[in-house]
Amino acid sequence: MSSDIRKWFMKQHDKGSGTASKTAVPEKPSPPSSEKPVIRVDTSQENSGRRKTSKYFIASSTKEASSQEMVKEKKAPIKTPSKRKIQNSNEETPDDIKPTPIKKKFHKVDDDEDDFVPASKEKKPAEVKPTKKIKSNSNIEITRNSDKVDDNLEGEIDEKDTGTPLKAGPRDKGGRGPVAVAAGRGRGGGRGGGRGGGRGGYMNFGERKDPPHKGEKEVPEGAPECLAGLTFVISGTLDSLEREEAEDLIKRHGGRVTSAVSKKTSFLLADEDVGGRKSSKAKELGIPFLTEDGLLDMIRKSEPARSSKQEEQKKKTLERMNKPKINISPHKVEVKKDQSASSGRKDAAKSVKPGISPDKRKCQYGDHNSLTWTEKYRPKVPSDIIGNQSIVKQLHEWLMHWNENFLHSSSKGKGKKQSDSASKKAVLLSGSPGIGKSTSAKLVSQMLGFQAMEVNASDSRGKADAKIGKGIGGNTSNTVKELVSNVALNSSMNWSKHPKSVLIMDEVDGMSAGDRGGVADLIASIKVSKIPIICICNDRYSQKLKSLVNYCLPLNFRKPTKQQMAKRLKQITEAEGLQVNEITLEELAERVNGDMRMAINQLQYMSVSQSVINYDDIRQRLLSSAKDEDISPFTAVDKLFGYNGGRLRMDERIDLSMSDPDLVPLIVQENYINYRPTSIAKDDNGVKRMNFLARAAESIGDGDIFNVQIRRYRQWQLSQSSSFASCIIPAALMHGQRETLEPGERNFNRFGGWLGKNSTTGKNLRLLEDVHVHFLASHEAKSDRETLRLDYFTLLLKQLTDPLQVMPKEIAVQKVVEFMDTYSLSQEDFDTIVELSKFKGHPNPMDSIPSAVKSALTKAYKQGSSSRVVRAADMITLPGLKKAPKKRIAAILEPVENGLAEENGEALAENEEEGSDSEDDNDDGISTENAERKPQLDLLNNKPKGIQVQLDLKSNGKSNMKKTPASKSKGGSQAAAADKGSRKRKR
DNA sequence: CAGCCTCGAGTTCC
DNA sequence: CTCGAGGCTG
């Protein structure tokens, strides 16, 4: 760290302090909500002075010899919020605050800075801090410019600035990225930073950056409720806290954090003026800005004594929360039922509210503690279900109209049903677990007077059983069958009429775990069923259920919002006499991922040991259970690249990418091009995107290098770097909305192309080998496989398809068949040739051929096949293998009757030979048959046959041989000789 | 009590 | 950006 810069900075700082007096700091940290403190109100240009830096960064800046001019150039807008803040606190805040800024900074300063740290400690904090700032500033401008592409506040100045130090820019960027990452994850970052720095800065995440002073500030402990009633919106990068940390902090102190700025927002928490929507909107709405330091101060100040006002407010809110009593009391149900079923639940709740007294509630719930809360507070009426009311309504409607739609019209109205796609015969409820799918199904059917037959499909496995037939009881699936079909039979009988039944199939996706049979069976049941069927599954897009959704009315349950859940949880906790903060409940709701059941269980569990639950309890308890969902490589990539990909924490990203370290990179590599990065907000000509793409590609390439090191030299410790380079960085760069690059492409992550290609390569090789063998067997040419593919295929394709396109059908077909026979190509070979000759942009020659011609060709070839004798190595069976049954051969021979009259010319001579061979091998019956057909056979086989084989074209693989090896070997040489002769003739 | 407004969360997949 | 939920007001 060069001392002149430091000196310069001091000077600079003194200058700056004069201008900084504009901002005001609130006297009180957390004022009552009525008068919002203006922590920082400035919309002026100086906002653009950013305080984005880190110690690493500084080091790099000096190393990089960022020029003095550059620094100087930047000095004008140096003032940064935090600096002002500190100064202000010096002037205006009591002493107890002062130490913190000092302390917070130098926890882990680099070694080379240590020498001056103690000295500066004695000075005013303001003087210390800027040291960093100045440098950072010079860098920041550069960094930011590329980091924050959509920053419209970024003025011409910035443009110019970046322009000048062109060389420094990218490097800084690069240096910064890895470092930031490393800092975020803990240790081991330094070296990575060096490398990344050298690599041209692909590590720019294009999204939230790490706080410059991460972990350097001491997080204060304030009064638990000191932020109650305040709503915060976090924007941009804070000084020392990760966004999550800040959120946590606020929530722990009773504050609320939302994602969007609205009128309810109390503060916009931002350390810098990110020129984004949030801050502009905040300005519009007059919402005060709050820096991180401001927030910390607020919390700190609250500690000694909470302001009475807050208490009051808190109490008020508590009271407010108390008022809406439990919705679930039987009372309410009654009332609810009185009203028409369709009436909204809002009014019902409202009308009931006053009627319920606390005591009532108590005796309602207090009596039997044996019941688990999940049971106790299970919704009793459909409208009790949290969230998804519209879905419940749809379900209700569907069920209500089911009978008229399907039962009445069952005799006449099948057509109507099919035409009316809206009325499917079944519904498919989908959504993550615990959000009330089965509850809704049950409640709705109960409410409509249906008798619910609940079947958990996962324990009724076995399609075989289902096949046994209807009416065999004992097994669930059979019961289902019985139920469905019996009702069908008895639809007019009393049993099914009066207590209407509904079948609820739970966990449909579990049902078909092994095979698709379960679902197929279910579909069959749906088709037949005379009772409504409600299917429930967890994810609708599972492959297994693909066929099912066609028959179902899909209803997608969403996670209830955390507010909704918190509300209900609040009721429960109150009923149970549990003291829980509302924010805490929201957090709980979030942590359990919308799973009401789990939330309640957790609550009950915690209630055993404590009667007051606060934020940290939830945090600790549920921290580990955060990820329980198993993720496939696909979902992992989805998440990484999703529009929310930027919000993932680094460890989450690593978890995702490590979920399948082999597959995820492949999928990433296959799909990253398809994403339109959100970080390039407005990208007029796509240049930025291209840049990002290039960087992503480069990173993927690096990942490959890592991978080689890992695999070849067993450097397993590199695996994290590998997944970093090959997954996380590309994802960080490119995450955004997926778009299709070609019309008609499914907008879905493709499977890793490599694997697919690998397997198609294998397959194609096999196919090619088949062709090759046949080709060689024709003795028309001897080439190796590659030559065949490269030199012959084009011609073969031409020969095979051109006639079909230009010549009259009959002749063409005949010609092609002839050609195929000449080269002893089977029809599969034909397909292979067409397939392997396909190239993008080249028209498939088969496309222009009328299907009539195609079928004629097939037919002709098949006809020929019965008599065709193909000599091919893959046609030979070993003696041990059984011969084809006679019947089959007969059948094959059968249709030969009327084909190929024309071809007859040449090969008579060989026929004798062939015939005799065949006869030798075959049973008598066949031989006679063969003998009868001989003339035709001859016509077909204009080549001499060494190995003579009846080829069943339809099933080449299992085609039956009628040839012993002996005869083959004997015939082989003959065939070769004769073949040549005939060929020549033919040509 | 019904419609409008505002807030907040979610956003794909045939 | 769009949709649902909830709250407010005429």
TrEMBL record:
Residues 903-926 have a biased composition (Acidic residues). Residues 1-221, 298-367, 900-987 are annotated as: Disordered. InterPro entries: AAA+_ATPase (IPR003593), ATPase_AAA_core (IPR003959), BRCT_dom (IPR001357), BRCT_dom_sf (IPR036420), DNA_pol3_clamp-load_cplx_C (IPR008921), DNA_replication_fac_RFC1_C (IPR013725), P-loop_NTPase (IPR027417), RFC1 (IPR012178). Residues 185-203 have a biased composition (Gly residues). Residues 222-303 form the BRCT domain. Keywords: ATP-binding, DNA replication, Nucleotide-binding, Nucleus. Residues 966-979 have a biased composition (Low complexity). Coiled coil: none annotated. Heterotetramer of subunits RFC2, RFC3, RFC4 and RFC5 that can form a complex with RFC1. May be involved in DNA replication and thus regulate cell proliferation. This is Replication factor C subunit 1.
